[in-house]
Design goal:
The structure holds two protein chains of two kinds. Chain A is an all-alpha fold. Helices cover 74% and strands 1% of the residues of chain A. Chain A has a two-stranded antiparallel sheet. The termini of chain A are far apart. The radius of gyration of chain B is 22 Å and the shape is globular. By secondary structure, chain B is an alpha/beta fold. The chains are: A mainly alpha, B alpha/beta.
Chain lengths: 315, 547
């Protein structure tokens, strides 16, 4: 009974996560309208790099939410056997709120608590990757396909690292001058575009592995290994080539963002195809395709759009 | 409802049960008995269902008969080993010889879909050399089929069943990638892996006919573990959920609870149809061709039962080999107790495998090979295995408490064809009034040496994997083959490479009976591959007007 309740709680958490994700994304426009009521002027005049920082905060938040829901379901499935399995839940929760807070913050200065939370997320992501590598290699068979498929997923903690990274970029960007902001020794827009590109490619690696495990049994399973790599390439091009308007890239990033949301729908359909379908949600959500995973692409694509806008202002 | 399936035929009135929907039906074409259909097929297991599907898809008029019931897995397969014995062929038979066989659970099925409804889903290819094992390895008999041709049909069956297998298979020539990925290994499978690594031999995830991702209307396997008692989710790719729905769609008629009793021949020595018992009466289906696919006991029994003045020794029996060369597979095991919890009943029973001794010829004092696999016995079966050890009462109770820590390795071992191992007719009659089969079986010295080698090797492997209190289970056998072997010479075989009988050109045999040798792997994939090949050959012959 207790276990059943835990199961229900976790699943509700996961479903809640999806609902919030949808709200955050869906509410972008109305929310903007609400904020703009009083400080409309301020907002219009806000420096471009602060707008980009806020968008990065939002992306970081969405990514954290995805990690929170995904790790909650998966680590529940792993019975929280190691207490460290709670860390991503804690870290992602903090990052989620930090990201939301940063998204509302128009000040041109980084926030030390938020910055700390993002740094913690990045470190948790790195440590998590270490734990997951250990989990794969300690198994009989070591670096075998079977262990890569079914042991702790190697790429998953990287999403936390990405969330922390996007958030930290958002914070550091605020400390830069409005004119020609720089990050990592290069124009900020370029750095951000490269970061998004790396994030997209890492996520594609994870999706590729898991969709291969699912034998690409549905043609739609190819979409997330085709569309985001193109987006990543366009981001590299954005970073390295001379800044100019790139409507094609913008549309491709929007397509990638939409893909993340569509993915939730396909994964929901995947759960319906499991034995017992949604009526057996307490078993099929943990064991079916992960509902919270696809919005990672949405988060990264939104960050990509922010990087693109900033990059266009650079020389 | 369950009783209903064995009382009254379900496939009638132009419809048949839809195995994918509770209470659902699919439409089915029906043929009147007096219409001469192209093929009447006796049996709907790995051989019969596959052939019925492929022939119907080629446009032939096909009627397939099965003595068993048409079960609805979603509604009628209980998590209850005793109840699920309804899937086994447990009609009366007489078993004798030096090693009398135990018929039922792991060697015969009585249901639409045959024993694939309760098979362990292990889907292995023959070692290529086995198709020429007399010429190349010095024992048994050569097959009249080349392994490269079989390799193509293995590909086809693996695709049709969405076999979940490893990315690279350690033994044999390259094969196409398995359509689905192998399943997660349970603790029992990892015991095999640890043991094999300690022994310096390869191991692998077992290629299995249960899907690891959705396929059509089959959901991915939920690791319920009752596979050999019937899959209640349809993840298992049995003939019942694969070939048979396809066959119906292509216009075949499948008649459940239809027990064939006799194949009629005319004065020209050709088969004209099958007499069968259904719905309280004997009926006769006319056909241009008759295919027998009743597996290694019922196939020779039906051929022998059909003896007439023209064929006094039974049909297709001019070689005298119908019923002879019955081969079982040896199925011995070693069991041990592990420190850690194993819960071997989680998931399909044989998730990992070693085929090392199928492919390694050195270090053997016997002909043939064996595979060994991890095991996941269900509780009642496990108690019965312990009874077989002589444990009862308090001793049994103490042993059963170790159930969750138990792990075992079990072989599927090759035995040699011997004419003294055979199926004949007894004087006793069954519920249909037909003489029952007498099954005579005994291991030869070579078989015993193979078993001794396997037990010795597996004992070391299990010990190296951490097994304690290791003991040997020496009394089990499984799959049955032979009894109507194929070959190139009418004097030494019953059918040719196309599964066509030498004596009666429109009589075919398409099941495990046609195997000249049995190899050390589970036979279902090979039976299905041969059925696919037979279907292609029939099409080619029909196009040339040679049917």
């Amino acid at each position: 009974m207790k276990q059943r309740m835990r199961s229900d709680t976790t699943t509700l958490l996961a479903l809640g996560g999806i609902a919030i994700a949808a709200t955050v994304l869906g509410a972008r426009k109305p929310a903007r309208a609400a904020w703009s009521a009083a400080p409309r002027q301020t907002r219009r005049e806000a420096p471009t790099h602060i707008a980009a920082a806020r968008r990065f905060n939002h992306s970081s938040s969405l990514l954290a939410l995805s990690v929170l829901a995904d790790s909650a379901v998966e680590h529940y499935r792993g019975s929280f056997k190691n207490p460290a399995m709670f860390i991503p839940l804690l870290s992602a929760s903090l990052s989620f709120f930090a990201g939301l807070h940063g998204g509302r913050d128009r000040r041109a200065a980084s926030h030390p608590v938020r910055h700390g939370i993002h740094a913690f997320a990045a470190m948790a992501g790195i440590a998590g990757t270490g734990f997951h590598i250990y989990n794969v290699t300690k198994r009989t068979g070591g670096w075998s396909w079977n262990n890569l498929f079914y042991a702790a997923p190697l790429g998953a903690p990287t999403a936390l690292l990405l969330s922390g990274g996007l958030g930290a970029i958002g914070e550091r960007l605020r400390d830069q001058p409005a004119n020609e902001p720089r990050l990592l020794g290069m124009p900020a827009g370029r750095a951000m575009a490269l970061a998004v590109s790396a994030g997209l490619l890492g996520t594609v690696g994870e999706v590729g592995l898991l969709h291969f495990r699912g034998a690409f049994q549905h043609p739609a399973m190819y979409a997330p290994v085709i569309i985001p790599p193109v987006a990543a390439t366009l981001m590299v091009q954005t970073a390295l080539a001379a800044p100019r308007p790139r409507p094609g890239t913008r549309w491709w990033l929007r397509l990638t963002a939409a893909l993340g949301l569509l993915g939730v729908g396909f994964h929901a359909r995947g759960i319906a195809r499991c034995q017992g379908g949604w009526r057996n949600w307490s078993q099929n959500i943990p064991s079916g395709p992960p509902l919270p995973a696809p919005p990672s692409f949405t988060a990264l694509a939104l960050a990509g759009l922010a990087a693109l806008r900033l990059r266009q202002t650079e020389k | 409802m369950s009783g209903d399936a064995v009382q009254h035929p379900r496939a009638r009135g132009g419809q048949a049960p839809d195995v994918f929907r509770k209470g659902g039906w699919v439409s089915m074409r029906e043929y009147p008995c007096d219409e001469e259909v192209d093929f009447v097929i006796v049996g709907t297991g790995a051989g019969g269902a596959t052939l019925a599907c492929r022939l119907a898809e080629q446009g032939f008029k096909v009627v397939a008969l099965d003595a068993g019931a048409w079960w609805r897995p979603l509604e009628e397969f209980a998590s209850d080993e005793a109840h699920q014995q309804k899937l086994y062929w447990t009609d009366q038979r007489i078993c004798d010889g030096d090693n009398p066989l135990k018929m039922g659970s792991n060697n015969s099925g009585k249901a639409v879909g045959g024993s694939t409804v309760h098979f362990a889903m292990v889907s292995l290819r023959f070692r290529p050399e086995w198709f020429k094992c007399r010429s190349l390895l010095g024992y048994g008999a050569d097959w009249p089929i080349d392994w490269r041709e079989m390799w193509r049909y293995y590909d086809e069956v693996e695709q049709a069943l969405s076999i979940a297998g490893p990315i690279t298979y350690p033994w044999g020539p390259p094969r196409k990638r398995y359509p689905y990925r192998s399943h997660e290994l349970n603790a029992a499978a990892l015991v095999l892996a640890r043991g094999a690594e300690a022994m310096g031999t390869a191991w692998s995830a077992t290629p299995l006919a249960t899907v690891s991702a959705p396929h059509g209307k089959s959901p991915p396997c939920v690791y319920r573990g009752f596979c050999v008692a019937g899959c209640a989710t349809n993840a298992k790719q049995s003939a019942l959920v694969t070939w048979i729905p396809r066959a119906l769609k292509a216009g075949a008629e499948i008649r459940d609870l239809a027990m064939a009793g006799r194949i009629e021949t005319n004065d020209l020595g050709r088969a004209v149809g099958v007499e069968y018992f259904r719905d309280g009466a004997w009926r006769f289906q006319r056909a241009r061709n008759v295919v027998v696919a009743g597996y290694a006991i019922e196939t020779p029994r039906l051929l022998l039962l059909s003896a007439n003045h023209r064929f006094p020794d039974g049909l297709a029996n001019s070689s005298g080999l119908v019923g002879k060369n019955l081969m079982v597979q040896s199925n011995q095991a070693v069991w041990g107790v592990m420190d850690e919890e194993i819960r071997s009943y989680k998931g399909p029973p044989s998730l990992s495998i070693s085929e090392h001794w199928n492919y390694q010829d050195k270090g053997k004092d016997f002909f043939g090979g064996y595979a060994y696999m991890s095991q996941g016995p269900l509780p009642v079966g496990w108690a019965s295995t312990q009874n077989g050890r002589g444990l009862w009462g308090a001793k049994l109770s103490r042993e059963m408490q170790k159930y969750n820590h138990q792990a075992g390795l079990k072989i599927v071992g090759e035995t040699l064809p011997q004419e003294r191992n055979r199926v004949t007719l007894a004087d006793e009659k069954d519920q249909y009034g037909l003489p029952v089969a007498r099954i005579t079986y005994g291991f030869c010295d070579n078989d015993k040496k193979l078993i001794a080698h396997a037990l010795h090797f597996m004992e070391q492997a299990l010990e190296a994997a951490g097994g304690k209190e290791i003991w040997r289970q020496e009394d089990d056998t499984c799959h049955l083959n032979g009894t109507a072997r194929m070959g190139d010479d009418p004097r030494t075989s019953v059918v040719n490479a196309d599964c066509r009988s030498w004596d009666i050109p429109n009589l075919w045999i398409c099941d495990g009976s046609v195997f000249p040798t049995i190899g050390g792997v589970n036979p279902s994939l090979t039976i299905q591959a041969i059925a696919c090949r037979t279907a292609d050959r029939i099409r080619a012959l029909a196009q040339r007007g040679e049917l």
